What does this fold into?
Amino acid sequence: MTSGKVLIIGGGPSGLESARCVAELGGEVVLIEKRERLGGTPDRESYAKLTHHWRDASEAMAEMAESVTGNKKIEVKYSAEVKSISGEAGSFQVQIEAGGIAESIEAGAVIVATGFQHFDPGRATQYYNYYSFPDVITLTDLEKMLKENKVVRPSNGETPKKIAFIQCVGSRDRQIGNEYCSKVCCGIAGKQAIELREQIPDSKVMIFYIDMRMYGYWENEIYWPAQEKYKVNFVKGVISEVLKKGDKLLIRGEDTTMSRPMEVTMDLVVLSVGMEPSAGTRAVAQLMGIQQNKYGFIESGGAGGLDPVATSRPGIFVAGAASGPSDLDDSIAQAGLAAARSLASIRKVMA
Amino acid sequence: MAAKFEKVKSVEKEHAIVDGVDISGDWNRMFEQRVITEYTPELIEKVADIPGAESFANCYQCAKCIPVCPVDIVGNYGPRKLYRYAQTGMDLTEAPELWLCTTCKNCLRVCPKEVDMIKIMPAAREQAILAGKFVPAELQQAFENTAKTGNPLGQPQRKRDAWIQNAGVTIPIIKDLARPVDVLWYVGSYPSYHPRGIDAASAAARIFSALGIDFAILGREEKDDADSQRLAGEKGLFEMMAESNIATFNNYEWKEMVVTGPHELNAFKNEYPKYGFNRPVSHYTTFLARYLDQLKPLLKHEVNVKITYHDPCYLGRHNGEYEAPRKLLEAIPGVELVEMQRNRENGYCCGGGGGGMWMDSFTAKHTKMRLSEKRAMEAASTGANVLAVACPFEVSRFEDAVKSTGNEHVTVNDILELLDRSMRGEQ
It folds into this structure.
């Protein structure tokens, strides 16, 4: 039976924005979220200043969540997962389990917004010793400390004065299996470097990189100010290993534009970990029989290549980082498109 | 032609001498530590904290400046490298690198971050001078000469107008005329004292006279503009000279000023206004190009030469005049004008700007060849037999350079001399 409802899987930035847009366009939504609260990874990982104009991302997410939970056209189901799906565009039957109770939902279209997970730095081929040295941390670890305005060396609680970011950890690496660029790590490292210089004005902050990839607003809102205003230092040449030297960390690499080896001590080393498809993205893609790319992200683009929210199965759409690394801006933009396309696909069947 | 000169590898010492014994070998490079053991952002900030030098910290290493830096072509140097050197331990205010920039402005022309060496270098050099750090001795001498005698050559002030006796035409001194003139011609130090400069000045006087221009010079009252001293870090000296010159300029009535040299043009047009001097100033090429219709009938004699013209940095890039010199050269009957590979906006520096004029021995220690030699070779490679110039620093520089590079067949002439030759025939 044809249904006018749109089922949205995932209550992160893309899921919330899709839900809001479908409702605003006059459609009805069932949004299912695996956790007990909305907001997705920005909320779970306590992202701070990760939006345009440095607004606190979890704050912005809370605002989005509120606009969804307060909307009569949107039904939100927490602690919920998809179990199976059958049918076709216009009339899908989806079995879910919400709070341990099985349910069946009729939906005309589905938007998959199941997001990403951070790369596990233990899998890096270089010896970064994330699990051995407490002062080797990731962007997400640092984000939490920055949010509380209390950045310390985990080993001794002291304020770090020399901090190095290592870019492309888990990204652009064939051996790891992630040949893609995670897109956001350059911007986030730049942003965190600025915050470090604000919170610890007498710190030296250095970013070691292969290429700085600061697309969109990252370039003029982060990269240039990071260097020109906040005096963050960028060095081309990624670090090969992190060793211990007394109670400091010794980073070893090549300073490529000087063409010289480099061994410098640091108080804190931040690994700019990339994005991988979340377990939810992998599971949902399998279960729905939609095509994944070699990295496990949901293949999008459609037959013509210019349909960034289309999946291989008509009536099922994808938004945000489930289809590949994506920042908040891009995820939100895709969500709006997915909302429009899902409603259009239902109306086509109904007509 | 240029191929026989390899670029210098700065980390290798030519000779290693220990206790008087030459132990040179392939391993000389080991004398400089290879491993970087510390980054020193504070040394970038040390420069960027100097007023005027702020943009030093903005380099993002795109390296667009390096292929257009005239010094890198003969050495291992360039704006983006200075940033890295500072980041890896070099204190620019104490390093030889501080004195290699000629302020030619080609880096700023291409820099996407607008890192402005034209402001950074004078500011950092001034800091070094004030702090009593190393200053090349020859430069120090030029500063002292300027302060003592009013010109960097150290020539006596009373002889500044001695040259006018042999110019073959009457050259009025404005003080003696005791009446307003149309044109105040600021001759400049090199055209007043240097033999080859005097040749150009005398030619200018003859051309002005032939054109019937109502002009006068300041004579013994004229003092060096000191713009290159300013760029070399002596702002105090520059201010002293500027105040003195402005007072002299204001003592007389004249409609416009013409200068022989691009450095003087830059001083009076762009710097002296900061000290209250705001009068019309032109370089002689711009000025004479205005008189082209009257000038052409005077150019009666064919000058059968193949000329290539060298754009002075301070006439071209700094002040935007590329066409007037070429128009003048093209007006000379018999002349064939050919261009060097690097011309106009991308003209290659002769090495004389920013105080380079007075640091040749110092610069030679840090480069594989002189900038003027590189340029002389480029000029010769066009097949030209005359290298035409429009800056009083250049004649002597290039005359040395054509000799040292085995290109004696190339004659170096100021445009004034070539116009004069066409006017009067071979003398």
Remarks:
- The domain at 2-130 of chain B is CATH 1.10.1060 (Fumarate Reductase Iron-sulfur Protein; Chain B, domain 2).
- The interface with chain A takes residues 34-39, 41-42, 44-45, 57-58, 60-61, 63, 80, 84, 87-88 of chain B (CB under 8 Å).
